[in-house]
Every structure is written in C-alpha cells, then in structure tokens.
C-alpha cells in the first residue's frame, strides 16, 4: 500500500499507480484533504487492481461518503487548472524558501519540488526548532516524536509567499 496523500502535487507519471500492471497486490490511496482542501469532508479513494475489489468490498466501512462530499470531490478533481496553478506556485515559492533557509544555515530535507511539505532542521541537536520558530510567529509541526529525529527538526508547509516566511526569521 502506497500513501499518496500529497499525490495531487505530482505529475501522474510519477504516481505509484503507474506500477499497477506490474504489481497485482499494489494499492495506492489518496486523500482529498491535502491538495484539494476537503479535509473536513473525510473523502479519499483507493486505486487497486480489479481482482482486489472483492476483498475490499468485505472491509469497506458501512458509512459512505456524504452526497456533499462526493459532489465537492468530483468538482475538485475537475478543476485541473487550479491543481496545476497550485503546483506551479508551490514549486516557485518552495525553491525560494529552501534557498533562503540554506543561506541562513538551516538543514533542509530533500522532497519533490511540487510537494508542499518538507523537513527543516537546526544544526544544533539541542535546539527546539518548533519553539524558536513559534517565537518568530511561524507555525510548524515539531518532529521530536518521529523516529531518528529530534526537537531540532520540524515539518514546514510551503507558504504562498516565501518572502513573508523568510522576513520573520
């Protein structure tokens, strides 16, 4: 099973779904929560080979997606211009942000250029990076509870304007 919760931010040819023909037991799951902004509706979908559908039918939850959720999900998927525009904006702003953060001396984890999240680290392993950034009015997600990371690491969501983020530093 491959979690592509941020799959809307990548090109279709980069999706694990392209491997379906080679892997009879591959399941790719996606959410409408991230890139399409429908988190409150709890809408998602799975892509899997037809022969697995009978097994899925046995475990599918009894509560289906609401009519509003289904309608908004279909509308979101239909607006390909919006999705392309988001990818371009994220790619542009993320590149600026990462360049600026590296110049200041932060450590930046490698992620796909159109994925809106990335890992940011402080060289001082004793630093509490989330708290430091919070004091500068920058909201991030601390990574102290992740395996092999500590309080000196945070997850950053790419802002619409990299300059505003960098000016807070």
State the helix count: 5
What's the overall geometry?
A: elongated
What is the C-alpha radius of gyration, as a whole number of Å?
19 Å
The fourth-level CATH homologous superfamily of the largest domain is: Aspartate Aminotransferase, domain 1
CATH fold-type name of the largest domain: Aspartate Aminotransferase, domain 1
Largest sheet: 4 strands, antiparallel
Unreliable segments (pLDDT under 50, ≥5 consecutive)? none
Annotated CATH architecture of the largest domain:
Alpha-Beta Complex
Strand order of the largest sheet: 4-5-7-6
In whole angstroms, the N-to-C terminal distance is 39 Å
Give the helix level as a range of percent.
25-40%
Strand coverage percent = 5-15%
How many structural domains?
Answer: 2
Q: pLDDT average, as an integer? A: 90
User: What is the CATH class designation of the largest domain?
Assistant: Alpha Beta
Number of strands: 7
Structural class, by secondary structure, is alpha+beta
Q: Could you state the order of secondary-structure elements as H and E?
A: EEEHHHEEHEEH
List the helices and strands and how they pair.
Elements: E1 2-3, E2 28-31, E3 44-47, H1 53-59, H2 67-78, H3 80-104, E4 107-108, E5 117-121, H4 129-135, E6 141-142, E7 153-157, H5 162-168
Helix pairs in contact: 3-5
Explain what the structure shows:
This protein has five helices and seven strands; from the N terminus they run βββαααββαββα. By secondary structure, it is α+β, with helices and mostly antiparallel strands. Helix 3 (80-104) runs parallel beside helix 5 (162-168). The chain folds into two domains: 2-78, 3-Layer(aba) Sandwich (Aspartate Aminotransferase, domain 2); 82-168, Aspartate Aminotransferase, domain 1, CATH 3.90.1150. Helices cover 34% and strands 14% of the residues. The strands form two sheets. It has a four-stranded antiparallel β-sheet with strand order 4-5-7-6, covered by helices on one side. A three-stranded mixed β-sheet has the order 1-2-3, with no helix packed on it. A hairpin with an 8-residue loop joins strand 4 (107-108) and strand 5 (117-121).
